[in-house]
């Protein structure tokens, strides 16, 4: 289980999030929805300590992974990255690197040692979980950049899975993809959900309803930092929103 408590975030003196708390249960998919600029990506990056890579960025609050604060001073950055993977809107495989090497690219970075047999195993199982194995099993030595957009995104999912994370964060993972690839990735997410906690940012309300059991609606006021207006089970959020602003947003009146 991943839990954010009182997350407040700044870029310089520009506050972009105000006391955001959210529990993202294991075995579930949580969707973060809301208009552009309300801090969804910032929140997601805080969940795996990417926010601190921006020199002007600062934050307050806690992120607990199964009860452990990932920001405790003695915790290493790579431990957080190993446990909490991330997939971005634009597929970003290493284009000249082989499909095989792309999948295992994260192992070295996170300090995981693996011999050849172990690597072969991780490549096959990760590609299978990402729904890409059958399409690429005969060309694992071909460059990752030669795949279609949807395949590249699944390769990035496989790359994240190879380090066997407990959480997978996905920032608009299908926004740049065609409907067929989107479907394949949604099916992949649903299959993964039993073993990996998934948090997805999406602007696609149908997608939020298809994949997630829980949603959080983010909003930022004029000149005000972003926060969660409402969160809860997806059915309730779409069927019986408690806040007028949520109702307007999920019904496309925004
Ligand atoms: P969303 O993902 O909901 O569209 P973001 O988290 O990307 O929102 O952005 C939230 C706010 O933080 C916006 O006002 C944006 O301009 C600002 N912001 C995001 N990244 C940076 C950055 N690296 N430096 C300064 N401001 C940023
Ligand atoms: Mg964003």
From TrEMBL:
It comes from the Bacteria. Residues 2-250 form the ABC transporter domain. The keyword Translocase applies. GO terms for molecular function: ATP binding; ATP hydrolysis activity; phosphate transmembrane transporter activity. One of its GO terms (cellular component) is membrane. The keyword Nucleotide-binding applies. GO terms for biological process: phosphate ion transmembrane transport. InterPro entries: AAA+_ATPase, ABC_transporter-like_ATP-bd, ABC_transporter-like_CS, P-loop_NTPase, PstB-like. PANTHER family: ABC TRANSPORTER I FAMILY MEMBER 17 (PTHR43423). This is Phosphate ABC transporter ATP-binding protein. It comes from Schumannella soli.
């Amino acid at each position: 289980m991943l839990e954010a408590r009182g997350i407040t975030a700044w870029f310089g003196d520009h506050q972009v999030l105000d006391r955001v708390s959210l529990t993202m249960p294991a075995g579930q998919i949580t969707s973060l929805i809301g208009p552009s600029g309300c801090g969804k990506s910032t929140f997601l990056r805080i969940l795996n300590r990417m926010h601190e890579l921006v020199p002007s960025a600062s934050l307050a609050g806690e992120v607990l992974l199964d009860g452990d604060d990932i920001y405790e001073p003695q915790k290493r950055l790579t431990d957080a990255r190993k446990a909490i993977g991330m997939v971005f809107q634009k597929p970003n495989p290493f284009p000249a690197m082989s499909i095989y090497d792309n999948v295992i690219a994260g192992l070295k970075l996170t300090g995981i040692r693996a011999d050849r047999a172990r690597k072969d195993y991780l490549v096959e199982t990760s590609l299978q979980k990402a729904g890409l194995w059958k399409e690429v099993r005969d060309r694992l030595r071909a460059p990752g950049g030669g795949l279609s957009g949807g395949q590249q995104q699944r390769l990035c999912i496989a790359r994240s899975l190879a380090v066997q994370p407990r959480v997978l964060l996905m920032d608009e993972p299908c926004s740049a993809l065609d409907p067929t690839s989107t479907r394949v990735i949604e099916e992949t997410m649903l299959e993964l959900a039993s073993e990996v906690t998934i948090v997805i940012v999406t602007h696609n309300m149908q997608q939020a309803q298809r994949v997630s059991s829980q949603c959080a609606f983010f909003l930022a006021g004029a000149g005000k930092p972003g926060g969660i207006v409402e969160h809860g089970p997806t059915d309730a959020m779409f069927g019986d929103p408690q806040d007028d602003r949520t109702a307007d947003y999920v019904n496309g009146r925004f």
